Amino acid sequence: MTAEPSGWAHFGHVRMPDYRWGIFLAPPEAGRRIPFGDHAGEPAWQELPGEYRAPLRGLIVTQGDTEPASVEQQRRLGHTCPSLYDLRNLFQVNVEEGRHLWAMVYLLDAFFGRDGREEAEMLLERRSGDPDRPRILNAFNEPTPDWLSFFMFTFFTDRDGKYQLSSLADSGFDPLSRTCRFMLTEEAHHMFVGESGVARVVQRACELMRAHDTDHIRAHGGIDLATLQKYLNFHFSVSIDLFGQELSTNAANYFTMGLKGRFQETRIEDDHRLRDATYPVLRMTDGGIVEQAAPALNALNERLRDAYVQDCARGLARWNKVIRSFGIPTTLTLPHRAFNRAIGGFSAQRVAPDGRVVDQATWEAKVGDWLPTADDRAFIASLMQPVTAPGQVAGWIAPPARGIDGKGLDYDYVRLT
Ligand code: BYC
What we know:
This protein has helices spanning 53-74, 84-125, 147-169, 174-212, 225-240, 249-257, 300-325, 360-370, 374-383; strands at 278-285, 288-295, 350-351, 357-358.
């Protein structure tokens, strides 16, 4: 089904069994041409380019795998929603991720024949966090046990979706481009849920700090800024792993083949082939972390990660504006990109949030200041009590600035039966 920009959103109440599932594609672009790589300028492929079958299938499977994974990660959060407004947002995020899975499975089924169907079956067999059949990418095996994690996830991890989907939206394989262009329109709302969710937690923290004249607001039912910083450190570091290695021949091949471009490829002014271009990349050397020029084709993952990091920083600036508006001298910061990495050249070394390489003993002594501890997680869990009366909001988070689709905050966004 082709979805026109204004055509699919639905704001009324829908009973769960009546929810309309489907496969949505952005409208076709007449005469679309492949925007980059060796095939730049040729008509976009409407059928599967046979020679690129395996890498395309891999990209679609990896993308598809994340969608049900996120729903699996979030599936218990409904029990502890801080308000009906938040519950409604959770449901919207979840059904949209479910539909994004459909979109990827549609591509596998319609264009790849039997091996596509087998890959689709395997997608259904994998489970987030399952030690035997885990999801493909690490971040999608991490638990999302509480709403602070959910807001951080939708801010940081859904934002990876924005950058990956944008790169695939320029794919020479037109059916992939059209599904991803549609999915991108929904991703924006997910990131709004994350950014505004964390902003509301920050606001509540600041209100309590002011009211009680202390940074230690746990006793007053708030999430202190130090704990927020640790959650931020965790979700940022896990999410930047999702961009892959700093230097990647996979990424170079995807680009050269015309399968996966850069962020907003068509708006970049260069030759879109990158054969002789270089790009600066941070690398771990014996002398510490240094910037080196690398072939731009191999550095495409890092380039995408750079755009992502800048985008994250803009969100943090907005959270810090909330803190400043209370006259509180604390600033939330992004940790150094080498901090707490499991993928790429920084994964072999321990690095502090400020970018200092540290030894294992220092890491162990300090990690409880940098990443959430079991105690932090237990405290956050203790706050997760459901609030389901219309207009009411849990005490650890400020009410949203406005409702959804012009409705007030006391609207019954979800009818529980
Ligand atoms: N965890 O050459 P490299 C979203 C593997 S989120 C585990 O650097 P490449 C959403 C890698 O697969 C967007 N393994 O890899 C958000 C490769 O293995 P193979 C999801 C990892 O291919 C929230 C090997 O390491 N979409 O939509 O350049 C809610 C060598 O690495 C990881 C996509 O990711 C990792 N973090 O880059 C719901 C787009 N990183 O193939 C949804 C499709 C790397 O040698 N995927 N590896 O066995 C891709 O474009 C690429 O596969 C990656 C990796 C960017 C992920």
